[in-house]
Amino acid sequence: MTEQELYEEGWERFPWWWILLENLFMFVPWAIGFAVMWPLKMAGVPVASLAYALLILVTVGWLLKVHNCSTCYYYDKWCHLGWGKYTALICRKDAGNPETGMKLTVVYMILPLIPIAGVVAVMMLRGFSWVLLGWVVVFVVLNGVQFAVLRPRGCVHCKRRYTCPGSAAK
Fold first, then answer.
1. 89 lies in a domain?
2. What is the phi/psi pair of residue 16, to 5°?
3. Is residue 30 part of a domain?
4. What pTM was computed for the model?
5. What is the pLDDT of residue 165?
6. Which domain holds residue 102?
7. Cβ(98)–Cβ(71) below 8 Å
8. Which long-range contacts (C-beta less than 8 Å, at least 24 apart) are formed by 113-117?
């Protein structure tokens, strides 16, 4: 990546509060998703919740970091999520294939649908629950804020604003 491809006014380092806020808006919905699917058990084991957590760990926590973050300008730097620093701990620079990474982002985009389907299953098995419905509303709102508000604003300040295939600020 040449200096000309970088958005000159982009932030070299995102502030700590931004990184914290954006991570909260990702991790809290994941925790809610894990919790609302907890009743879906087989032999007393919350298989749906565990499978959801495993999917997040493997795709978001590892594969997307290797294929997207290792090839990013922010590798070993404080990007909008701080994941450039995390990625430097788990793999070397340019370890992945960005094209594979973009294909894997489909998994990232369907993650919010899994707990919604799980809640439908829980309610079909156990009956309607206002509490569960309330948690789903919170889950949807937090995901909406992260996707429609925080992510695009992070992209606006990103050095790769115009060259990143996943940018929401083009």
1. yes
2. -55, -40
3. yes
4. 0.91
5. 86
6. 3-156
7. yes
8. 114/33, 114/37, 114/52, 114/55, 115/32, 115/33, 115/34, 115/36, 115/37, 115/52, 115/139, 116/140
